[in-house]
Amino acid sequence: MKYFFLSLIALVVLVIGVFGFRGDKFSQAPIQVFPDMDDQDKIKAQTGSIFFADGMGSRRPVLGTVPKNADSGIMPLEFGAGRSGYYFDGKQDGAFGNGMPKELALENESDSIGLLARGKDMFNVHCAICHGESGNGKGVVAAYFAKADPIIMVPTLLTALPATHPDGMIYDIITNGKGGMGAYKHNIPVRDRWAIVAYLRALQASAN
User: Domain 104-207, CATH 2.40.110.10 — does that match?
Assistant: First the structure.
């Protein structure tokens, strides 16, 4: 028993010698058994870094990054907040119109091809998960809906013709949502919404 107490006292002295008392200050960095995020791999603003080739710690925003505020006026312009006119609301003389807005500046075939390519990218990112890559309404989400409740169906987009669903109406549905579909006006910029409309028309034309 005597050796047990001697060992215990030695252990306590050793622990205090290594870790010190609570509140003690040392010139050396403390031993951290559980760091608890005290030290983080980060670079403070406006400081240099040898990690990057240019020696700068601060990096430019990723291309396409959306600013957190609207002080510069970029967000209201790109997302159409508080603006009217065919380009922003899809309406002409109070009714949904057809055709691509002049603001898209589609002056030649190359411009149209570029818009369709962008529309395809955005459609596959935001729409295909429900409506399918071909727009037939058989996306991944639709398959899960069918298993959960056969009554719930994701509509096909291939039968929405300009006569019954003008381009402006489709743009409005993307913007404000419809039925079980949520609004994308805070997720997709105005130009990209029109690009999706153009690509959807291409899908419908190819299906027919």
Answer: no
